[in-house]
Amino acid sequence: MKLQRKNGLRAAALGALVVSGALVLTACGSDDNASGGDGGGTKPSASSNIDCGDAKGQLRASGSSAQKNAMDLWVKNYMAACPGVQINYNSSSSGEGIVAFNQGTVGFAGSDSALKPEEVADSKKTCQSGQGINLPMVGGPIAIGFHLEGVDKLTLDAPTLAKIFDSKIKKWNDPAIAKLNEGVKLPDTAVQAFHRSEDSGTTQNLGKYLNAAAPDAWKYEPEKAWPAPGGQAASGSSGVAAQVKQVDGAIGYFELSYAKSQGITTVDIDTGGSAPVKATSENASKAIAAAQIKGQGKDLALGLDYATKADGAYPVVLVTYEVVCDKGNKPETLSAVKSFLGYTASEDGQKILTEAGYAPIPAEINTKVRETVKGLS
Amino acid sequence: MASTTPADTPPAPPVPGPGSRSTGRLGDKVFLGLSKGSGILLLVIMASIAVFLSYRSVIALSDNEGNFLTTFEWNTAGDPPVFGIAVLLFGTVVSSIVAMVIAVPIAVGIALFISHYAPRRVAAPLAYVVDLLAAVPSIIYGIWGALVLVPYLEGLNSWLDEFFGWTYVFEKTEIGIPRSLFTVGILLAIMILPIVTSVSREVFLQVPRMNEEAALALGATRWEVIRLSVLPFGRSGIISASMLGLGRALGETMAVATVLSPNFLVSLHLLNPGGGTFAQNIAAKFGEANEFGRDALIASGLVLFVLTLLVNGAARLIIARRKEYSGANA
C-alpha cells in the first residue's frame, strides 16, 4: 500500500513535469508562429490590392463552417498583405458564431442564414447604437450526391427529391424517377436517404429549397434540425459524404467540395427550364443572381428564388452571411472589420471563391455589400 | 501488479513515522492547509457546477411547451420550443443494457482466464493488453465502428433478422445499414470491457487461498473450485465492476455520435437505424444551438448526470459492503 502511494506520487510529479514542459513548448510555439506571420509579410503577395487602412491588432471572428475554406483563403491572403492584423476565424457553427457575436466577443460572425428577429433584438445590446445586419459574402451549390451501381447520371426535380428525402419513394426504379430519366436503366435497389445528424445550416437551406420549389411534397418548416421522420443520419457533411460513397442506393446532400474530393456523382436538377442543370459554382451563381434583397435599411439579407427556371441556374444554393453591427461596432476592431470585409467583397476576394468550390455573390448585390461595408461605424 | 504485493504488514517507514503527528513544524502546517484547501476547493467546484446546471435547466424547463419526460421531439429552435428526453433516456438505457449483456460474461471469462487458468507468462501480457483497450480514445472507436464494424455487422444483422426476427427485438423493419442502437451496444461493450475485466480480475485474485485449497482438497475440479469458491466470493465484485462499466457506457459520447444514425423515435426493433442517447444528442445539437437550446441540452445533461450518479453510487455501495465482508474474513 505504502509502496503504491509512493509510486503514485512519483507519477504525479512526472505528470506535472510533462505538463509544464508541454506548456513551455507550446508557449515557444506560439511565439514562433507570430514571428513567422510577420516574416510572411515581408514577401509581397499577389493580392496587393488589399487596402489595409489603419487596421491593426487582433480581429476575432466565429461562425459557419460552410464558408470555412473561403475564410481560410481570405485570411491567408489578407494577413500576408496586412501584417499588422491578426485575424482568427473560428469555424465552429452559425449558431455558435451568432451567440458569440451577441455576447460581444467577436468582431463579426459568419452565418448560414440571416439573423432571426429575436437574434437582431439580442444584437442591440452589443451594437449599442445600432443592430446586427447580414452581409451576403459567399454563395455555393448544395450538391445532391448519390451512389447507385450501374448509374452514373441521374436527373431529379424538386417534388421527386422531396419524396425521396421524405421516404415516400422507396425504390430507385420508382416510376417518378424513371420518368425523369428516360434511357437510364434503374436498378431495383432500395433508396437510402442520408441527412445530417446534427443541426446544420445546410439542412435548413435544403429545406428552404424543397419548401419553395415543391410545397406540395415537402410540408416541413425549414429548420436546422432534420424535420422528416424517416431516413438515416450521419454527422457532418463529411459523414454524409462517406456514407453515400459506401452504401449502394444511397443519396445525400453536402457542399460541392465534398462531392469533388470523394468522387461522388451529383444529381442534375430538372428545374422546368430547357435542360437539367448540373451542380457547379457557375450555375449556382446564376441562381443567386435571381435573388432579391429582402433586408431593411442596411441589412442585405437575400430572398432566394428557389423556383427559378432560368437556363443553367442551379437552384439548390446556400448563401452565407457575415454578421456585423451597422453602427456601434467595437472601436478597437472596427477598422480591421471594414478593411477585411472590404477585401472579401472586392473583385479579388470574390474571384477566389470559385477555386474553393464556392460561388461569388452576383455583382449587383455585391456592390451594395461594398457600400455597406464602407459605411460601417 | 496487486498480485505481487500480497504482504499486509506495513513496511518500516523511512521518514517521520505515524506516531509523531503534529510536531508543530512549519512543513506540517503548510501541508495540512494545502490538503485541506484542495479538499474544500473540490467541494466548492462540484457545488457550483451543480448550481449552474440546475439554474440553466430551470430556465429551459420553464419555457418548454412539450413534456420534458414524454415528448418525442427535440426542437428548441422552434416556435414554441418543444423538447423531451423520452427517446434519449430509452436509447441510453437500451444501448447500455445491450453493452452489459455482451460485455459482462466476456469480461468475467477473461478475468477468470487471467487469474486462474493462464500460465503467468501469458496472464501478465494479456492483462496488459486488455487494460490497453481503455487507452484508445473514444473517437477512434467511433471511426472504427462507423467504417469497419458497421459494414461487417450487416451479415450478422440479416442473420439475426432471419432466425430471431420472431423475438420482435431482432426484427428489422426498416432498410438501412446497421447504424443502430444494437451496433452502438456492441461498440460500447468493447469499450467497457477493460474496466469490467480489470476490476473482476482484482477481485478474483483476492479470493482467500484457503477457500480454494479447501475445495481442491475435497476433490473439486478446477471448474468446481471456481464455481464453489471464486464466483461466490467475487459476485459482489463482479456486480460493482459491471456498474462501473455501465457508468461509462451511459455517458459515452463521441463513439455513439459517430456510429449512430439518430432520430427521435422509440423503437424496440434494435436493428433498425435510429434512436439517440443523452451524450450523443448533446454532441450533435450543441454547436448550432441558440442560448435556449443550450439550456435545454444542459437540462438533459443534468438527467444523465443524476442517472450516472445513481449507478456509480450503487456500485460504491456494493464495493463498500464487500470490503467489510472480506475484511471480516481475512
UniProtKB/TrEMBL annotation, chain A:
<dbReference type="InterPro" id="IPR050962">
    <property type="entry name" value="Phosphate-bind_PstS"/>
</dbReference>
<keyword id="KW-0732">Signal</keyword>
<dbReference type="InterPro" id="IPR005673">
    <property type="entry name" value="ABC_phos-bd_PstS"/>
</dbReference>
<dbReference type="InterPro" id="IPR024370">
    <property type="entry name" value="PBP_domain"/>
</dbReference>
<dbReference type="Pfam" id="PF12849">
    <property type="entry name" value="PBP_like_2"/>
</dbReference>
<keyword id="KW-0592">Phosphate transport</keyword>
<feature type="domain" description="PBP">
    <location>
        <begin position="55"/>
        <end position="347"/>
    </location>
</feature>
<comment type="similarity">
    <text>Belongs to the PstS family.</text>
</comment>
<keyword id="KW-0813">Transport</keyword>
<feature type="region of interest" description="Disordered">
    <location>
        <begin position="33"/>
        <end position="54"/>
    </location>
</feature>
<feature type="signal peptide">
    <location>
        <begin position="1"/>
        <end position="27"/>
    </location>
</feature>
<protein>
    <recommendedName>
        <fullName>Phosphate-binding protein</fullName>
    </recommendedName>
</protein>
From TrEMBL, chain B:
<keyword id="KW-0472">Membrane</keyword>
<feature type="transmembrane region" description="Helical">
    <location>
        <begin position="126"/>
        <end position="153"/>
    </location>
</feature>
<feature type="transmembrane region" description="Helical">
    <location>
        <begin position="296"/>
        <end position="319"/>
    </location>
</feature>
<dbReference type="InterPro" id="IPR051124">
    <property type="entry name" value="Phosphate_Transport_Permease"/>
</dbReference>
<dbReference type="InterPro" id="IPR035906">
    <property type="entry name" value="MetI-like_sf"/>
</dbReference>
<comment type="similarity">
    <text>Belongs to the binding-protein-dependent transport system permease family. CysTW subfamily.</text>
</comment>
<dbReference type="InterPro" id="IPR011864">
    <property type="entry name" value="Phosphate_PstC"/>
</dbReference>
<keyword id="KW-1133">Transmembrane helix</keyword>
<feature type="transmembrane region" description="Helical">
    <location>
        <begin position="180"/>
        <end position="200"/>
    </location>
</feature>
<feature type="transmembrane region" description="Helical">
    <location>
        <begin position="82"/>
        <end position="114"/>
    </location>
</feature>
<feature type="domain" description="ABC transmembrane type-1">
    <location>
        <begin position="89"/>
        <end position="315"/>
    </location>
</feature>
<comment type="function">
    <text>Part of the binding-protein-dependent transport system for phosphate; probably responsible for the translocation of the substrate across the membrane.</text>
</comment>
<keyword id="KW-0812">Transmembrane</keyword>
<dbReference type="Pfam" id="PF00528">
    <property type="entry name" value="BPD_transp_1"/>
</dbReference>
<feature type="compositionally biased region" description="Pro residues">
    <location>
        <begin position="8"/>
        <end position="17"/>
    </location>
</feature>
<feature type="region of interest" description="Disordered">
    <location>
        <begin position="1"/>
        <end position="23"/>
    </location>
</feature>
<feature type="transmembrane region" description="Helical">
    <location>
        <begin position="39"/>
        <end position="62"/>
    </location>
</feature>
<keyword id="KW-0813">Transport</keyword>
<keyword id="KW-1003">Cell membrane</keyword>
<keyword id="KW-0592">Phosphate transport</keyword>
<protein>
    <recommendedName>
        <fullName>Phosphate transport system permease protein</fullName>
    </recommendedName>
</protein>
<feature type="transmembrane region" description="Helical">
    <location>
        <begin position="249"/>
        <end position="271"/>
    </location>
</feature>
